[in-house]
Specification:
The protein is mainly beta and 154 residues long. It has no helices and 14 strands. The strands form three sheets. Strands 1, 2, 3, 5, 6, 8 and 10 form a seven-stranded mixed beta sheet that branches. Strands 4-7-9-11 form a four-stranded parallel beta sheet, with no helix packed on it. The protein starts with a strand and ends with a strand.
Amino acid sequence: LCGCNTTPDDPEKLPGDYEYIVYSLGDEQFITLTKYVGKATDVVVPTELDGLPVMEIGENCFAGTAVVSVIVPDEITVIERSAFAKCASLTSVKLPENMLYLGVQAFAECSSLKEITLPDGALVMIVKRGTEFLVPNGSLHLQAGDKLLLISER
C-alpha cells in the first residue's frame, strides 16, 4: 500500500471526478478508485489517472451517486463489494471483458437497473430467488432481488 493520493478535504488534489489510492506491487503501481465525486450521469470509468493504470473500482466507490449508465473498460479487472450499491438511477452497466472479481452486492438496491452487459463467455448457471434456485431456460425473466451464479471461461 502506497497511501492515499488524494484527500477529500484538499480539493486541489482531487483528480477530476475521482478519489483514489495508489498501490505498489514490486516496481509496478496501479490505482484503485475509492470515490466518484463527479457530476456526470453517463460515466465511462477511466483506464488511467495521473499516468497510472486504473485496475480496480473500490468498495462503495459509486454508492449512492446519481449515475444512470456506466461503462467499465476492459483494463479494470476488479469491482469490489457494494461498488455501485444504492444507485437508484442506474439503468445500465457494461462490465469489462477481463473482469476477474465482482464483489458481493456490487449492485445492491439499484432499483432502476435494467441492463447488465456481461463479459463474453460468461454464463448464468443458477438464479437464486428467495429460497428457490432456478436454472435459466431462455425465458426466465430476472426480478428485483435475484442473485446470479456466473461461470466464465476465464
